[in-house]
Amino acid sequence: MKILQINISLASGGAERFVVDLSNELSKNNDVTLLTLKDDSVDSKNRNFYKCDLSPRVKYLNLGLGDGFHATYLWKVYRAIKKINPDVIHMNGQGIPKYCYLACLLLGKRMTFIQTIHSDLYNGYTTWFYHFAYKTLASKGLLRWAALSDTNYNQLKKEYPKAQSRCIYNGRAPITPTAKFDEVGEEIARLKDDANTKVILHVARCNPQKNQELLINSFNTLRQEGVNAILLIIGAFFDSELGKHLQSIAGEGIHFLGTRHNISDYMLQSDVFVLSSNFEGMPITLLEAMLSGTPMVSTPVTGAVDVINGKNGVLSKDFTEESYTAALKKILYNHQSYKEAAMAGKEASPYTIKHCAEQYMKFYKE
Question: What is the pLDDT of residue 185?
């Protein structure tokens, strides 16, 4: 099968990590092209962050579009898709269907167009455009939707009942140590207060959605109460105004490490993974933690409520500092039992990229 994956860029983010993993897995038995839309020669370090992880089996193309959105982009995307002539066009990212609207309208009867919902449906996927696309494309069978979790799927069916849709759990490639594993171990050892210090890991870009002030304030409280732990924060854009504010309120034991390609090394050597978002779809980082056997703490967002079962981690009751701090304390004070459950659960996890790709192949062929 000839499959075209489309994303805005390959910047550091969950949807970008997912599309690279999925493309690599699908390319084992299919002809796969990955098309990014925004000019990857601009801010190339960021926009090409995951490009080095692409399998040589995957053809990579960049359309070179500028920032913003112009009507001419509809024609350019249409021409690119028509030239590639795939059987399936799989769109990833909230804004992609807007760029692909003309192509879907003109080619949807002979090609399969699928859009994956990569976030909480009610945070970006119920705009006027999505309702317009539903009425003109999805309800007529020209566009399908895939949801990442049971919660997402229920939202999708309620909002867009006539759309052909399917729940396909997100997946992640196996979490294995890299050549930098020992180097990371030495780095973490230098940051720890002593051999018994618990290592808490947070991986996310600096963004209001990630609600990192909640995480930092809660961790500050733990340290003030004498909890022996450090917090490692990995992600981009902490040099922004928001990022500088977060660094200014961060107390002792909080370390901002910047971006890292070898997240697996940090996951495998951390005691707890934490997420503090206001909303999500199915966070790739939670799946990385699950496949690493690392216990998790999260706010009760979509995706997290589907993955964290009370044995492999703890969900805060709400989004308050009191509740989130209580969740952190619970997992740290009972870490051994959570760690054992997390290690046992990783072997039977349904969130592998192999299983995910198999489900997408079935959806592509329907």
Answer: 98
